[in-house]
Each structure stands twice: as C-alpha cells, then as structure tokens.
Structure prediction request, 202 residues.
Amino acid sequence: MPWLLNEDAALRKKLQGLTVKDGALELPVGVRFSYPESELADQTFPLIILERTRAVRDPRREARGVVQLGYAPEGRASWPGMEDGTASPYYTDNPIPYRIEYQVNVLCRKQAHLTDLVARLSAVDFLPVRFGYLEVPEDGTVRSLELEGPEFHTGWDENQKRLVTAVYLVSVTSEVLGTVSTPTPVKKVITDLHDTQPQWPA
Prediction:
C-alpha cells in the first residue's frame, strides 16, 4: 500500500483485538476508520473511531542531499544483516519527513467500560504517554508515536442515548521518498597517480 494508507492500516491493526470487562463477560471493541455513514445510534459499542486529521512536514527530521535509507522501502528486498542500517544498499534524494496526525475517538455507553478501556490503552503496546511506537510491516519500520490526551467528554447519539468518550491526538513519523537508487559501491581506489610508463633502454 502507498504512503498514508500504510500508516492508517498499521494504526488500525494496533488497536484491534481489545476487550472491556462487563461483569463476567469480555466485550470486543470494534475499530473503524472515520465516522460511519450510518448513524451512531446504530453502532455496537464500545467502539474506537480513527480519523486522520492532517499530514505536515516535520522540519525536526529534515535531511538534504543524497540520504542512505536504513530500511528497505516497500517493494524492495531486504539485505543480509539488515539490523545494520549502514549496510543498506538503498539511497534517495531529499526525502521529505512528515508527521501524520490522527484523532482516536473511544466511544462507550457505560462509564465503567470507558475507564477500563482507557486503562488498557495506556499500556506501552497501545497508546502510552511515553515510548509509543507503530510497526509498519510494508517496509519493516517501527515509527515513533507521540500522544496527547485523553480528554473525556459526555454526549448523546441521535436517539438521545448517552455516549461517554475519550479523545486522543496521535502523531506518527513518516517520510515521502524521492527516487530510490542502489548505486554500485566503489571497489578500488587508486592513490598513486605518478607516470608509470616503462623506461626504455638507452
């Protein structure tokens, strides 16, 4: 998948599989991208709704000129000893670093469900306030994930049934690449530039 869609899918996958306690039961938590076409009143709760809010250039990570990539871009083969980024055969010109920003909306009917879910989301593998990460399998990268929130709100759906929500702002690192090349490495460096013509006998 291309840029943006890879990150969208990775964030959705990261938040799937959660449950909340409801007495002796564990209720599954749905995860979807963007608000549903149908009314909220018709949805099953608890529910996490993801919205991509913007993608902005990140000058903190700006690089100019030819840059060696420490990962294999999507569609490119890995290299032996891939844990060593300096051995990467892939280079690109002037990659553009981005921050992709999301709003993560957690919606529940019951306050107890929301509290349980927010507690689970605070774990390091989901949406921690520090050391957050996002794995993107298409290029094998692990991206930084920064978090603000949650903020808590109480509202109502179209049928005036109560909805309690927690809202997170999430920022994920990314970059848009120029043309990716694999230049041939230098095999020999000649350092003696003296005249080496043969000496003819007198």
Q: What stands out?
A: The mean pLDDT is 91.
